[in-house]
């Protein structure tokens, strides 16, 4: 990969490599676009096999954050950090505080948060050394209920568009994965009278749901062909793929998982099958909206109100898709890109004057 060619092609601003000899801290921050605001994105700790693998991951994830924040209407840019190391070995107070000092050195161009293999306790150490951190346990806390609430209103919007209904009462929803987000999603759905089927590979998580709610449980592989109106993937990515796509009986796919479509072309195939797809980074933005609220001054009600706007945003995306003969993913990308471009124009016009 020629990195500068790649950065130029997709409009990246900055890649920062950092290292601390004392603690073994080693990582890369990528800042994709700061037109709308400082680049926000979590810190992922992963034992990458090669440096190139880490670079590819951080580039991809940072750009994804730009689109997610822009489409969510937030004044944030996109960025991400990957730390290279074995999560079972590298962590210590000194390691995280060294990382915090590094984040502080970027002067607020990048704001960090939790991600894969970074815990609330780790982030508390980071916060001792930097002001540029959000999503702390003591402030906005677990983002999952907000993500789930956004998915819930997103399911309602997508059912409104595809099935012409204003409520999920009586609507059959198949939820794949009842972990942090899936549990709360089931709660919202059941409260409004949806008929819910769930699956998971962890019995404890299934038990937690069946103890609290009246749902049907199926085996993990059966979820793709279950009789339902809505398939809500809340476990893994890439579950809409060549092996599953012909088996779906649903009319709507709308869930929390990232990268639900294995490949972009699956968006078009879903359309041909008459299935309306809620773009993942739009419908699962509730957690990001919640941590953004922490930067503004945390207010749980305000975070919930802003998360609720996912409903109208998805209806806008479905309209843009119809008007421009695009898939819903293309329409979401257009919405994000248009917002960034508009703000770029505002700034350059101001400079010209
Ligand atoms: N937590 C958030 O706020 C948030 C925000 C945005 C996106 N997401 C995405 O939403 C998804 C769920 O997040 P989470 O925080 O609830 O994660 P989680 O790990 O708490 O829950 C995932 C659940 O899926 C189950 N699972 C894994 N493989 C499965 C399989 N093959 N079949 C059925 N179940 C399986 C797991 O056992 C677990 O119960 C993830 O893809 C995550 O990236 C989460």
UniProtKB/TrEMBL annotation:
Keyword Nucleotide-binding: yes
Residues binding NAD(+), per UniProt: 177-182
EC number(s) recorded for this UniProt protein: 1.4.1.9
GO biological process: amino acid metabolic process
Active site: 80
Family indicated by similarity: Belongs to the Glu/Leu/Phe/Val dehydrogenases family.
Record-given protein name: Leucine dehydrogenase protein
Organism in which the protein naturally occurs: Haloplasma contractile SSD-17B
């Amino acid at each position: 990969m020629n990195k500068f060619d790649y950065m130029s092609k997709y409009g990246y601003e900055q890649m920062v490599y950092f290292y601390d000899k004392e603690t073994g801290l080693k990582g890369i921050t990528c800042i994709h676009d700061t037109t709308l605001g400082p680049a926000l994105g979590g810190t992922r700790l992963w034992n990458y096999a090669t440096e190139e693998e880490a670079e590819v991951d951080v580039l991809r994830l940072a750009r994804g954050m730009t689109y997610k924040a822009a489409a969510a209407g937030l004044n944030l840019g996109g960025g991400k950090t990957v730390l290279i190391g074995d999560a079972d070995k590298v962590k210590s107070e000194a390691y995280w505080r060294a990382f915090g000092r590094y984040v502080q050195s970027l002067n607020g161009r990048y704001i960090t948060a939790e991600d894969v293999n970074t815990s609330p306790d780790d982030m508390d150490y980071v916060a001792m050394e930097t002001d540029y951190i959000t999503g702390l346990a003591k402030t906005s806390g677990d983002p999952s209920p907000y993500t789930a609430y956004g998915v819930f209103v997103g399911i309602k919007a997508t059912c409104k568009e595809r099935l012409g209904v204003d409520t999920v009462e009586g609507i059959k929803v198949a939820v794949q994965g009842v972990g942090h987000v899936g549990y709360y999603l089931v709660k919202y759905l059941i409260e409004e009278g949806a008929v819910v089927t769930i699956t998971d590979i962890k019995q404890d998580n299934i038990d937690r749901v069946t103890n609290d709610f009246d749902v049907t449980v199926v085996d993990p592989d059966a979820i793709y062909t279950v009789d339902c109106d809505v398939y809500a993937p809340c476990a893994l990515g890439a579950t809409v793929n060549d092996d599953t796509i012909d088996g779906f009986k649903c009319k709507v796919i709308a869930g929390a998982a990232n990268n639900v479509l294995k490949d972009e072309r699956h968006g078009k195939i879903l359309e041909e099958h008459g299935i309306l797809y809620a773009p993942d980074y739009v419908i699962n933005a509730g957690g990001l909206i919640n941590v953004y609220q922490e930067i503004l001054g945390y207010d749980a009600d305000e975070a919930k109100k802003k998360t609720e706007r996912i409903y109208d945003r998805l209806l806008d995306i479905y309209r843009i898709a119809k008007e421009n003969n695009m898939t819903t993913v293309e329409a979401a990308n257009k919405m994000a890109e248009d917002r960034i471009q508009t703000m770029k124009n505002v700034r350059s016009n101001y400079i010209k004057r």
